[in-house]
Amino acid sequence: MSDSFDQISQQLKRRHRKSARLKYLSMGALGLAATFLVIFFADMLSKGLPAFQQAQVNIEVNYTEEAATNGRAAVDPEIMSIVSRSVVRVIPLDIRNNPDLLGTTENRWVLASGPVDQYLKGNRVRLSEDEMAVIDQLVEDGQVALRFNTTFFSRGDSKMPELAGIMSAVMGTVMTMIVTLAIAFPIGVMTAVYLEEFAPDNKLTQLIEININNLAAIPSILFGLLGLAIFINFFGVPRSSPLVGGMTLALMTLPVIIISTRTALRSVPESIRHAAFGVGCSRWQVVKDHVLPLAMPGIMTGSIIGLAQALGETAPLIIVGMVAFIPDVTASFTQAATVMPAQVFTWSGEPDRAFVEKTAGGILVLLAVLISLNASAVLLRKKFERRW
């Protein structure tokens, strides 16, 4: 009896040791994942936050006759090298639009050049000693400073890093998501309702369900190839437009919406359906008036998560050409446009050191949007979910 008790005791000790090892391994894996996440966010913040500041210089602009044809004549030659080229380019246009400026002088804060911006942020740049001395003196005099970078949020792409912004990409993303939502949400919900509430359980519907599950797992770049072959080459939809991008992302989002909608419909208790049938409702009335309203929070949550996933996709949009250089905001669903992930991808390939912080800044904006969408989905689920 004593030997049997000792054996059981040893077995229990071994089980407890294995359980403890599994617990510590799980905690270690969780800690490692959290560490990588912290490192990622710290790296993005350290590189991206400088993008929200831009060097500006206070200069004296002389609107002379010569400046009406050559903007460089309006700025002191000693500080010309530290002023962005975009500033002197628009001076003749300003005089043309407002002739009263001729013969006047004004002090104004304007964008500094990219190297000056990087120098003030402590990065290594190619500036001569004389140029650095001039910059240091202007900083001491309060004529050069880092200010909030409104250009980053109000302008489109540019080959000059100090002038590059994300506004055109944001508007292209919004228009693309509108097309995606307009196509994927009604088709996905109606498909799920039919498969879950009306379709007979036969080999055809089983085959459809298997294909939907498989489509949710295939690489996103294949949807880009499908969009290129069908929408652009066959139907002639304009390349690089929010219309073709939204249609391509709608194909990718449909399986997610269908699966999440079917899950939400299954969560509605059968007693709700039986009670509705018991008072004489038709099947369509049961679905429309009872099942769908109760399942709508889950449907909305799944749809938002599907759109958030589509928002972060780059590969399918590259295939359909949404990596174009777009300096201005797109005004039509059929005009060329770009989206935030593609804009970040484009900036990451630029050789200029200043585009590194633009890339990280774009990633921070994209992360903020994605986190907001996922948080909205969680809040909707918490607010409207019902426990049976």
User: What percentage of residues falls in helices of 4 or more residues?
Assistant: 55-70%
User: What is the mean predicted local confidence, pLDDT?
Assistant: 87
State the oligomer: single chain
Strand order of the largest sheet: 2-1-3
Shape: extended
- Reading the helices and strands in chain order gives HEHEHHEHHHHHHHHHH
Low-confidence stretches: none
Helical segment tally? 14
User: How much is the radius of gyration in Å?
Assistant: 30 Å
Kindly estimate the percentage of residues that lie in beta strands according to DSSP: 5-15%
Structural class: mainly alpha
**Number of DSSP E strands:** 3
Distance between the termini: 51 Å
Question: In this structure, how is the largest beta sheet organized?
Answer: 3 strands, antiparallel
Blueprint of the fold:
Layout: H1 2-48, E1 53-62, H2 85-97, E2 105-111, H3 114-120, H4 129-140, E3 144-148, H5 150-154, H6 167-198, H7 203-215, H8 220-234, H9 242-266, H10 270-278, H11 283-311, H12 315-319, H13 340-348, H14 354-384
Antiparallel strand pairs: 1-2, 1-3
Helix pairs in contact: 1-14, 6-9, 6-11, 6-13, 8-9, 9-11, 10-11, 11-14, 13-14
Kindly describe this structure:
The protein has 388 residues and is mainly alpha-helical. It has 14 helices and 3 strands. The longest helix has 47 residues, at 2-48. The radius of gyration is 30 Å and the shape is extended.
